[in-house]
Amino acid sequence: MTTDDVELRHFREIEPIWNTLIDIYAEVRADRLHDPHYSVERYGERLARHASEPGWEAVVGFDGEEAIGYTYANTIEHGDRYWKRITSPLPESLTAVPTLALKEIMVRVPWRKTGASRSIHDSLLAGRSEPQVTLMVNPLAGEGKVHHLYETWSYRDIGRSQPSPDSPVLIAMVRDIHLVQRDVG
Between the CA of residue 50 and those of 43, 46, 58, 92, what are the distances in Å? Predict the structure, then answer.
């Protein structure tokens, strides 16, 4: 599979894509759904909360009418709980500016290693005004390969965070949004 025919659609409202995001999440996380943190119900709670936060936007990739993956994010400001949960002291120069917090990025198995996740990611960032983007990644995901992938996308580690008592400890990462963007058209 290639991303040549993938259409990237942007959404600022959750209603039209709620079921799509839930379905992709359940498929991608099928092996973890027994864990309360990864259950569809808990994901739905997080998705509803995130979608109500300022600056929320999602990008969904479609191959024809088939959704292949997505990412979504919202804007965080100085003092946001996101920053407060990171264990390392962070410089104010990092936390004082509006930041895009990338909350999820998921791609269905047939479209992995095709460039789809990078295209979806870059499409989201291309239209944003925040100067930087942050995300959190499980260092064990893909035996460390996911973390390494984000490093190749110019993200750097800034600390660790455990967003909820039953979530894994995650690595928080950040990068400038306005790096030279690849052609995602």
Answer: 10, 6, 11, 24
pLDDT at 184: 44
| Pair 100, 47: CB distance under 8 Å | no
Looking at residue 28, its pLDDT comes to 95
How far apart CA 26 and CA 113 sit, in angstroms, is: 20
Amino acid letter, residue 140: L
Q: What value, to the nearest 5°, has the Cα angle with vertex 10 and ends 6 and 15?
A: 115
Give the single-character DSSP code of 30: G
Given phi > 0 = left and psi -120 to 50 = alpha, else beta, which region is 74?
beta
Q: Report the pLDDT value the prediction gives residue 166, as an integer from 0 to 100.
A: 81
Q: Give the integer Cα–Cα distance in Å for 51 and 21.
A: 12
**What is the Cα–Cα distance from 35 to 9, expressed in whole angstroms?**
31
How many residues are present in the chain? Answer: 185
Question: Which residues lie across from 136 on neighbouring strands?
Answer: 172
**What is the distance, to the nearest Å, from the Cα of residue 10 to the centroid of all Cα atoms in its chain?**
14
Q: Which residues of the chain have pLDDT under 50?
A: 181-185
* Cα angle, residue 135 at apex, residues 133 and 136 outer, rounded to 5°: 160
Q: What stretch of H or E contains 156?
A: strand 156-161
> Do residues 3 and 117 lie in contact, with contact meaning Cβ atoms separated by under 8 Å?
no
